[in-house]
Amino acid sequence: MSENTLIDPSLTDEERELSAMLRSFADDVVAPRSYEADRTRTLPLDVVAQMGELGLFGLPFPEEVGGQGGDYFSLCLAVEALGRVDQSMAITLEAAVSLGAMPIFRFGTAEQRERWLPDLVAGRALAGFGLTEPEAGSDAGATRTTARLDDGAWVVNGSKQFITNSGTDITRFVTVTAVTGESQGKKEISTIIVPSGTPGFHVLPAYDKVGWHASDTHPLAFDDVRVPEDHLLGERGRGFAAFLHILDEGRIAIAALATGAAEGCLKAAVEYSRSRNVFGSPLSSRQSMQFLLARMQLRVHNARLAWHHAARLRDAGRPFKTEAAIAKLTASDAAMDNARDATQVFGGNGFMNEFAVARHYRDSKILEIGEGTTEVQLLVIARSLGLV
């Protein structure tokens, strides 16, 4: 399978060089650790540190805050490269940047940025994004977690679930959406920075997940957690609106991750079909197999074009909400379909976790759920047509 068929020819020379470096790192450093990390359900923080040394966590941030001076497209190239070999490591990077550091960069005060960003963009620290609750998933406006001012401090009570990067040894804080009052009969939702180790902030045991086993994911509980008033992130009452924008960006990165997963499944299926002899000839010699692999390539191609387009729009400062939804929907479908087909190509071996396609089969389902379900993406697209 030619590498040229998998790379958009519109990439600049710098982007091609970055992509090649990222893919080499993924193949040489991340992939050899993937099976054991998945089996033991452990996030390899030494690999995270190497990602930090390469500057991956700082890709979309300007140099004045310690970043690499790149753009969101560059971050997505990194997420895609990692997603080919290990979705857990890819989502660790994506969530650390899109959901951890980006809100501080975009909405934080000068003091907040000075305090938190240097370690985040260097990969020395991680941060979580506390939005989802037991009763507030796709309907994030149903938030029940509260924060009230008391003698110069926010007092936070409530719970969050499915929070990535929230319980590692290098997690510094979680940004939490909370109801801080009412305005014209509607909930006023703001965002509060809650540092790790704050009394009353409880990181509950990690989930027993279907996939993404090496990704750190926990439910959180807040019991009269007190943080200084200056831990408000952004404008009071604008927390929900701000995070909707953050989620739009995140959908592009998830689309890149899903594209990488779809490509990883394609590459594995092509190689296996060539090496597997059935009734005296390679499996790849059968036209039915050739057509299946061709459809897998079609999905990768379309998914990559979709996220590239959305990322370019975002970096150009143009509206991208609908294109992000299209990219996320197209790529998550591609990942799930390619994982299923690749597992079938591998036969019984595809059911064994030591093979990457088996892990992709388990991992890819969440791509149709996280950062906006398939149904939410369809709703966004329908709205763009004036139908909702």
Automatic annotation (TrEMBL):
Pfam families: Acyl-CoA_dh_1 (PF00441), Acyl-CoA_dh_M (PF02770), Acyl-CoA_dh_N (PF02771)
UniProt KW Translocase keyword: no
Entry annotated with the keyword Cell wall biogenesis/degradation: no
Keywords: FAD, Flavoprotein, Oxidoreductase
InterPro entries: Acyl-CoA_DH_CS, Acyl-CoA_Oxase/DH_mid-dom, Acyl-CoA_Oxase/DH_mid-dom_sf, AcylCo_DH-like_C, AcylCo_DH/oxidase_C, AcylCoA_DH/ox_N, AcylCoA_DH/ox_N_sf, AcylCoA_DH/oxidase_NM_dom_sf
Protein name: Acyl-CoA dehydrogenase
Superkingdom per UniProt: Bacteria
Organism this protein belongs to: Microbacterium aurantiacum
Domain named Acyl-CoA oxidase/dehydrogenase middle: residues: 129-225
Domain Acyl-CoA dehydrogenase/oxidase C-terminal, first and last residues per copy: 237-385
Cofactor(s) essential for the protein: FAD
Single GO MF annotation: flavin adenine dinucleotide binding
PANTHER family cross-referenced by the UniProt entry: ACYL-COA DEHYDROGENASE, ISOVALERYL-COA DEHYDROGENASE, MITOCHONDRIAL-RELATED
Record family assignment: Belongs to the acyl-CoA dehydrogenase family.
Domain Acyl-CoA dehydrogenase/oxidase N-terminal: 12-123
